[in-house]
Design brief:
The protein is α/β, with parallel strands linked by helices and 517 residues long. The protein has 17 helices and 19 strands. Strands 1, 2, 3, 4, 5, 11, 12, 13, 14, 15, 16, 17, 18 and 19 form a 14-stranded mixed beta sheet that branches. Strands 6-7-8 form a 3-stranded antiparallel beta sheet, with no helix packed on it. It has a two-stranded parallel sheet with strand order 9-10. The radius of gyration is 22 Å and the shape is globular.
């Protein structure tokens, strides 16, 4: 499939982990920005400009304003969906149309929405559709076993509104994608229509758009999402895309140069594939682990619906044991593990800070997802130090809570102690306190941040306004760098298997070779 090398893409997301996920899945050189002023610099040729709107917890009016402000900062008026073109369906058919999306200088626009439909999805979609000839919507994320059938999100086969996926939300889950998208006028597109192929599907999109409505597509596999992306490309100028990371990966495959696979494997499995995947032409070798330690987390390619590494995929690395027992314990000064001498001897030292010392690695487990507890336990079992913080003190203290200094080269995981329960409505105050505490730590540690809200609040507290995506450690776990060379890995809270933190810690050190030097 032909690709125009100067195709610019602008993508918007409602939280930081989602923005980083999209930046990785598009497979282009990318800039990830956190403030609207950064959007005043238009994307350069062949670049993806991805912005975290930080709108997941905004009200509808504020979220709509954030989307409109982003569109106004970059976009130029786009024409309506054009008439059907010729009948040529050669290898360049999809991006002949996709090229027309940008032939007037307007970038190709993508809006990331949560696959579980959390946040002000409808308000943002309605604002994003303003000025578009058509907005094509596909929210399925097969890699996480979230599909859309008859317009309803199914999570592991259970309708979203009957599942536990919204247990932490303060309102009921929507019963359909169309309900979540209210007030946007939509029309459902059944799976059977999707599987008729891109040209038939594009015709259906035109019929829907002609009635002033926007198509909401069923999808159960990554192949379905690829068909949807290609059909949208055939519509020509004025078309925008809105969907999950699965649709972003499909767009990335469409944008990939002929003879390459694009980010197909990145979307295929939440846990399968290489330990770190490059995000386009940025140092590819630097994003691929070369040590046996990191290679232990690799698995062979698997089907789109798989979600965990197969048994026996290799043993994970063991960090040096700490002097205190590897258990869940309150914060107190204690010995912290150092990077194994064997890794230094193998040529994979941890990155150095400004003073030449090896940076500590701090994993901030800020998500309330049940799987995170197991991920923390496994990292601790491999020798990382575990520090827990009292949620009441985090929410009720204006300043940072005291933490022991992180030793150079150490691996530490920080989490919130939920044994006593968390007061309803206190989650955001707890995250803010966690961010203040992390930002007060000396030593500029490399960071692993789970949960979009936690990641954004920590980076805001540190004054970090932009990131450069470097690679993807596993689906959703995106390795970025700050302007001063610090590594930041972001990951949605619900993503990754039980060994996610172990894999990230193993991959981060070798993945930095050649990037920070």
């Amino acid at each position: 499939m032909c690709r125009r090398e100067d195709t610019p893409v602008v993508a918007l997301a409602d939280d930081l982990s989602g923005a980083a996920e999209v930046a990785a899945l598009l497979g282009l050189p990318a800039r990830l920005v956190l403030h609207p002023v950064e959007l005043e610099v238009s994307p350069t040729s062949g670049e993806a400009l991805v912005m975290d709107l930080d709108s997941r917890y905004l009200d509808d009016e504020a979220a709509s304003h954030a989307v409109r402000a982003a569109l106004a900062a970059v976009v130029r008026p786009a024409p309506a969906v054009g008439a059907r073109g010729g009948t040529d369906v050669t290898g360049s058919r999809a991006f002949r149309a996709a090229n027309s999306l940008v032939e007037d200088g307007t970038p190709l626009w993508f809006k990331k929405c949560d696959s579980l439909l959390r946040g002000p999805v409808g308000a943002e979609a309605a604002a994003f559709a303003e000025g578009a000839g058509a907005l094509v919507i596909a929210t399925a994320l097969p890699a996480a076993r979230r599909v859309v059938r008859d317009g309803v999100v199914l999570v592991d086969g259970v309708p979203l509104h009957e599942s536990a996926a919204w247990r932490a939300e303060e309102r009921a889950a929507p019963r359909s994608v169309a309900e979540a998208l209210t007030p946007l006028p939509t029309t459902g597109v059944a799976l059977g229509t999707v599987r008729q192929g891109p040209r038939a599907l594009a015709d259906r999109f035109r019929e829907v758009a002609a009635r002033g409505r926007h198509p909401v597509c069923d999808a159960e596999t990554d192949t379905d999402l690829s068909v949807i992306a290609e059909a949208a490309a055939l519509l020509g100028p004025g078309t925008r895309l809105l969907g999950s990371g699965g649709l972003a990966a499909a767009l990335g495959r469409l944008l990939a140069p002929r003879g390459t696979d694009g980010p197909s494997a990145r979307a295929a499995s939440a846990e399968a594939g290489p330990a770190a995947r490059p995000t386009g032409p940025a140092p590819v070798a630097a994003s691929r682990p070369t040590s046996p330690v990191a290679a232990a987390g690799r698995t062979s390619p698997r089907s789109p619906e798989s979600s965990a590494a197969p048994p026996g995929a290799g043993s994970a690395p063991r960090f040096p044991a700490v002097s205190a027992p590897a258990r869940r314990s309150p914060v107190h000064p204690a010995a912290v593990p150092s990077v194994p001498a064997a890794r230094r001897a193998a040529g994979h030292p941890a990155p150095a800070g400004a003073d030449g010392a090896e940076r500590p690695l701090l994993v901030v487990a800020g998500s309330a997802e049940p799987v995170v507890g197991e991920q923390v336990a496994r990292l601790v079992a491999h020798g990382a130090r575990h520090l827990t913080l009292d949620p009441g003190r985090l929410a009720g203290t204006a300043g940072p809570l005291p933490l022991p200094e992180l030793a150079p080269g150490s691996v530490t995981v920080l989490s919130v102690d939920g044994n006593g329960g968390v007061r309803a409505g206190a989650a955001r105050a707890i995250v803010a306190g966690l961010a203040r505490t992390v930002s007060a730590l000396p030593g500029h540690p490399d960071l692993v941040l789970t949960g979009g809200e936690t990641a954004r609040r920590v980076l805001d507290s540190l004054g970090i306004t932009a990131l450069r995506p470097v690679g993807e450690i596993h689906h959703g776990a995106v390795h970025c760098q700050t302007t001063d060379g610090r590594s930041v890995v972001t990951r949605p809270g619900s993503f990754g298997g039980p060994d996610s933190f172990v894999r990230i810690a193993a991959a981060l050190r070798p993945s930095q070779q050649g990037v920070t030097q």
